[in-house]
Design goal:
The protein is α+β, with helices and mostly antiparallel strands. It has a five-stranded antiparallel β-sheet with strand order 1-2-3-5-4, with helices on one face. The structure holds guanosine-5'-monophosphate. The site of guanosine-5'-monophosphate has 12 residues, from β2.
């Protein structure tokens, strides 16, 4: 997989507001927040999409959710609630091809996450 923006953030080649780091994962604020709280939790391993997760990645992908839940607790929004979502490929809205878990909080989330296109004919 080619280097993405997120590999550069892991390697400190471009700056980010880093909230958490350990051996396997990094969490940082999204540059274009879609909620009062919006950060990304990524594996250090450069997995491109959900489709590219392999058997050997099960633990690290599960770990992303544990990091999200820990930060939710530490940042005080665990009880009130939040959305944790991964987008996959163009129809999923993915723009950066390094797996990432979006964590959105601080206001009630809407559902469903899409709108039907209105037919005008
Ligand atoms: P996707 O659309 O792939 O699910 O999400 C990519 C996310 O990465 C977007 O929410 C976008 O705002 C965020 N993003 C893109 N470039 C950067 C960057 O350079 N720094 C940070 N912190 N976030 C970024």
């Amino acid at each position: 997989m080619s280097d993405t923006l997120f590999s550069k953030i892991i390697n400190r080649e471009i700056p980010a507001d880093i909230l958490y780091e350990d051996e396997d994962a990094l969490a940082f604020a999204d540059i274009n927040p879609q909620a009062p709280v919006h950060f990304l939790v990524i594996p250090k391993k450069p997995i491109a999409t959900i489709n590219d997760i392999e058997e050997e990645d099960k633990a690290v992908v599960g770990h992303l959710y544990l990091v999200a839940a820990k930060l939710a607790k530490d940042m005080g929004f665990a009880e009130e609630g939040y959305r944790a979502v991964m987008n996959c490929n163009p129809y999923g809205g993915q723009t950066v091809y390094h797996l990432h878990l979006h964590v959105l909080a601080g206001k009630p989330m809407g559902w469903p996450p899409y709108q039907e296109t209105l037919k005008t004919e």
